[in-house]
Amino acid sequence: MIQLKDLLKEIGEGVTPYNFKQIKNTQFLIAYTFTTETNDQYIIKFESGRARPDDYKLSFYPGTSIEAEDDKIDMIMNKGEVYKILSTVVSAVKSFISKNKNASGISWVGVNSEKAGAGDQRDRLYNAYLQKNIKDVPNWKILPGTIVTKLKKVTPGN
Fold it and tell me: Across the strands, what pairs with 25?
């Protein structure tokens, strides 16, 4: 029986990400955008709160508005671009980490699990792809969870 992690070893390997650009940089929100070959625009957001300003929530979704996430986060485009989109998200995470030295954690959920129709399969795919491709980031460790996956900064030697 083929496992999802085994399939991901082959699918998505060596995928070139889309070019992305930063569109917002404030104390609690950093956002990027990119456009696919089919001219769909996406937003990648890193958002924190006042209580834990160095701990970020990662989200990505089709659209042009940083504020319209709730309306778009569960849209499924199915245009054959999923691995290139996920590769772009991974590149944005790596860029974010390299530019934001004070960040201590990044968490994500594959889909908004509170919304009707949120799919476990898509959630597992997103989490597996991100975990597989982020694990080589120095001084960061993946802490998988059943709903939320977290990338946590670690000090060398721990």
Answer: 30
| First vs last C-alpha separation in the chain | 36
Q: How far is CA 16 from CA 12, 20, 52, 136, in A?
A: 9, 12, 33, 17
Q: What are phi and psi of 123, to 5 degrees?
A: -60, -50
Angstrom distance (rounded) from CA 123 to CA 144:
12
| Short-list 86, 96, 113, 95, CA closest to 54 | 96
Predicted structure pTM score: 0.81
Strand partners, 41: 35
Name the β-bridge partners of 98.
none
Q: At what angle do helices 82-99 and 120-134 cross, to 10 degrees?
A: 50
Q: What's the sign of the alpha-carbon dihedral 110, 122, 141, 10?
A: negative
How many CB atoms within 10 Å of residue 133?
Answer: 20
pLDDT tens, residue by residue, 53-112: 999 999 888 888 888 654 544 455 556 788 899 899 999 999 999 999 999 999 887 655
Strand positions, DSSP E, 7-155? 20-25, 29-35, 41-47, 55-62, 105-108, 140-143, 149-153
